[in-house]
Amino acid sequence: MTTPQSGILPAASSNGLFMLFRRRLGRRADQACKQWLAQWPEQVAQLASANPDAQFVAALGFGADLWPELYGLDKPAKLRAFPRIAGAIHPAPATQCDMILHLRAERFDVLYECADQFTQAMGEWFDAIETIHGFRYRDQRDLTGFVDGTENPEQAERASVALVGAEDPTWIGGSYLHIQRYVHRMESWNKLPVKQQEAVIGRTKESDEELADDDKPLTAHISRVVIEEDGEELQILRQSLPYGSPSGDKGLYFTSYCKTPDIFEKMLARMVAPTADGRVDHLLNYSRAVTGAAFFVPSVDALKRLGD
Ligand code: HEM
After folding, report:
1. Does any ligand 1 atom lie closer than 6 A to the CB of residue 142?
2. What would the pLDDT profile of 282-300 be if each residue is shown by its tens digit?
3. What's the pLDDT tens digit per position in 32-49?
4. Is the CB of 226 under 6 A from ligand 1?
5. Whole-prediction pTM value?
6. Can you give the C-alpha Rg of the chain in angstroms?
7. CB 92 within 8 A of CB 180
8. Which end of the chain is more exposed for a tag (fewer CB within 10 A), N or C?
9. Is there an atom of ligand 1 within 6 Å of 291 CB?
10. Taking the CA of residue 68 as centre, how many other CA atoms within 13 Å lie in the half-sphere pointing to its CB?
11. Residue of 82, 139, 151 with the most ligand 1 atoms within 8 Å of its CB, for mutation
């Protein structure tokens, strides 16, 4: 029985901390680095049990370039770099980075403490290149004012959508993670009448209901990301959170876990490139991706194997 990292499956948290790391120039993830990473799940478990009210959970993921230094030639079947989408007319940049720490809790102080310990310990090998504090906004809304996460899989389906299964037995219980930091153009969004905002998203704003097919443009966000194959809707598990400061960037830290990277890549392609049906996602007239990265989040057991 393999155990997935605690940060993947649970329902949305009030706080999230997203940290991207890049290998320091000329440094390799040596034995000492691997030993430290192998004990990390234990440290997470201790922090969680010392602060039960915080509901602290964590996920640590590694990118395709770093992977061989950690696990040699043994790699998840579909681990690859963030996709470059052919024909894209909206930006979907790939950020040069090797590792992500994704922490969630009801208390931000616990996230801070955990991230600080991690960053100090990893400082010999990795530089932190971006730290973003995500927060729940109202009743789980994005800063656009629309509820985000409604159509996420629920209960047992979350695991079957997000976790690698028997198809890749060495990496069972792991998950492919994609992130993109979006910066919203709040001024132009706020000038848009609600009816038009609803046509951009494909759902009603206040009551969060899906628009009827006749009212839902092919350019609506929902129309772009709902993809049916063989009669089944393709699914990802989103753990996105709003972030921002009143005087700086604000938007959504998009976060998706899945048992395969293929689905995120297909959805993103239908958002940014008009190759499928001549349309792109009109949400991207109001929000722009400024980072993007792909990782594999190994199971707790696979993380511990780094110490062998
Ligand atoms: C649904 C917002 C980016 C995939 C939604 C919904 C909102 C939303 C408001 C409707 C409620 C819900 O079911 O969660 C945003 C914003 C984004 C963004 C503000 C960035 C600016 C993305 C990206 C992807 C994606 C990059 C995947 C590549 C999905 C999926 C759904 C969804 C799969 C559920 C569709 C359904 O089953 O009805 N998003 N989203 N979103 N979004 Fe996004």
Report:
1. yes
2. 999 999 999 999 999 999 9
3. 999 999 999 999 999 999
4. yes
5. 0.99
6. 19
7. yes
8. N
9. no
10. 3
11. 151
| 219 CB near ligand 1 (under 6 Å) | no
Question: Which atom, in ligand 1's list, is nearest to the CA of 286?
Answer: 21
- Residue appearing with tokens 């190759």: 275
ipTM, interface predicted TM-score of the complex: 0.99
| Range 230-241 average pLDDT | 98
Distance 221 CA to ligand 1 centre (A): 7
- C-alpha 124 to ligand 1 mean position (Å): 37
What's the pLDDT score for residue 1? 74
On whether the CB atoms of residues 100 and 295 are closer than 8 A, the answer is yes
**What are 109's two structure tokens?**
């102080």
Residues 50 and 230: their CA atoms lie apart, in Å, by 47
Instruction: Determine whether 281 is an active site residue.
Output: no
How far is 302 from 59, CA to CA, in rounded Å? Answer: 13
Structure tokens at 207: 């009551």
pLDDT, residue 36, reads: 98
| Structure-token pair, residue 295 | 């990782």
CB–CB of 47/104 below 8 Å? no
Half-sphere exposure of 205 (CA within 13 A, CB side): 14
* Catalytic residue (one of 98, 142, 148, 281): 148
Domain definitions of the chain by residue range: 15-307
Closest residue CA from atom 22 of ligand 1: 254
Nearest-angstrom CA–CA distance, 77 and 67: 12
